[in-house]
Amino acid sequence: MKVLVIGSGGREHSICWKIGQSSLVDQVFCAPGNGGIAQDAVCVDITATDIASLISYVKKNNISLSVVGPEAPLVDGIVDAFESEGLKVFGPTKAAAALEGSKAFAKNIMKESLIPTAAFGIFNDHKKASQFIKDSQNPVVVKADGLAAGKGVIVASTKEEALCAIDDIMLKKAFGDAGAKVVLEKRLAGEEASFIAITDGSHIIPMASSQDHKRAFDNDEGPNTGGMGAYSPAPVVDSQIHGRVMDEVLYPLIAGLKKKGIIYKGFIYAGIMIDEKKPSVLEFNVRLGDPETQPLLMRLKGDMVPVLMEVANGGSIKTMTLEWHDDPSICVVIASGGYPGNYEKGKPISGLDEAGKIDGVKVFHAGTKKQDGKIVTSGGRVLGVTACGIDIENAIKKAYEATSKISFDGSFYRKDIGKKALER
Ligand SMILES: Nc1ncnc2c1ncn2[C@@H]1O[C@H](COP(=O)(O)OP(=O)(O)O)[C@@H](O)[C@H]1O
Ligand SMILES: [Mg+2]
Fold it and tell me: pTM to 2 decimals?
């Protein structure tokens, strides 16, 4: 059968690569894809949010299954639109995707379903929000309600900083309508991890744990980014935490949504903070993480296409499982100089073939394109050099050996990806 993956980042490259290995799949398409995805799939020049064009492409080309990578088309209702045309698609509906599309919606569901999360208030009035900050004992975390491309959360250290943040979001409209409402919540301490699962709305298949690195520079310094690297498994998610996230977070979540008439189907991602062996939910995402997916899918044994198909068909995954290689995996992101601020594009990249030849290494592309037969940069996060090894130390060594072979003008990457796992 033919499968279409929607999106253009490193996450989508790894999804295409994995799905392409399935014995059920003859051909993988990716819309719009990128310079590296073109090696593992047929790239189709349609953007991820152009739902009408995607539907007509899928119909014309007899594509049996579409898998949606990023959140924006899900929040826009791509799944509802595909399903109303009778097309099979893997992902949550618009109503379910509100879990990521509105942080206020997510916090309310957590409250109703007794899911552990930071104490919070929701405000659409600047004066009231500002009073809440002034009255609070501790500095608060300020979150724009809607999608803000990972920039809408300010972990304030002082009241002044929090007040500045609500001015930017609510008065200056730094994120447009996404900031019409804000969530103000208690700042939690602990270690973060990503817990991702697949659900059909009743049953849940957990994926392996992972952890990403959000800050631009080593030792978690510098500005927040889309993610500078990741590894799997995350040792902080031991079997006890795993059990608690399943029982106290994911099952109550899908039950709480069901009460509202929402059947959640697709990947569900819980960003959790673990403190004194207790998980709290920071946020939900309604898709796989980027760059967590790159090391995750490298560790996935066998085929995930039957699970995706079953969910897209509205069936049950009760008797299905996913198996994981014991070998840990890490992904090092190589970024353009200046990212997450302004950066230049169009830099030729060298060393890709040499890096990819190292045993256990796959270089996933995020911001690249093909120009005059050469791969050049086209985004802030450019590549995700991913490696697995017999232990985390070995995976780190291989990933950095491969990373050191790749260069382009202005490139940079963190040197400490996986260090936390190593220290544990
Ligand atoms: N309540 C909180 N306490 C401490 N840190 C937080 C809290 N909420 C969010 N953060 C930090 O801010 C980051 C981004 O917040 P998150 O809710 O994941 O939003 P988004 O991914 O949409 O930007 C988190 O990964 C975490 O590091
Ligand atoms: Mg997050």
Answer: 0.96
